[in-house]
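Sample entry follows:

:::
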Amino acid sequence: GQVVGSLRLGTVPLASFNPMHLLLPLREKYPELHFQISSLSSEQVIDGLSRNQLDLGICYLDQVNTSFFEVIELGTTTMGLLHDTRHFQFASDTLRWDELGDIPLGLLSKGMHYRQSLDLSFRSRGLEPNAVLESDSSFQLIQAINTGMCCAVMPLDCGLEDLSEHLRILPVADAAIHSPVGLLLRRSEPRSAIAEQCFDEARVLFQAN
């Protein structure tokens, strides 16, 4: 069927799911569809869906009450060290947490789910990250990485390393965020026909089983 209008999507800024893997197939199927994407915390995504300010949301699922939302799980976020090869070189294919201690890091601001998980990963190993920069913007972290000011522990498969030929991401051993990421649609009315059709399409795309 013809889907015309705008899909309002709220998504957490850093996860091992690139939202374009959802939007590109939707755009190919529904060329008349427009997209509004907001970068939000998991709490803001849930709140925006509840207030009908968003049609669909991508967020961490540990705070999601499934009696209010339909959920498609999009997998666990695994992490690696994103760096610019002009400024940093590493001999191995993977890194251990204890090797990250001396590397200057750019971190997402405190309060974001991803940052909390990252802090926990360091703390639980008795490590303290060498944070030279904090920002609530992934883009500003990338700018800092490009200049060689720092590296950053970023999700694998989120597409960031494709932004420049000099960017590489090295997997960090045992680095995963315990809470999976998922796509959310609110169960109660009002919910738009666009939201429902796009959610059904996502189910076909991501629940191949």
Notes: The helical segments are 20-29, 42-50, 113-123, 138-146, 193-206. DSSP finds five helices and ten strands in the chain. The two ends are 24 Å apart (CA to CA). Strands lie at 5-11, 33-39, 56-60, 69-75, 78-84, 105-108, 131-135, 152-155, 167-176, 181-186.
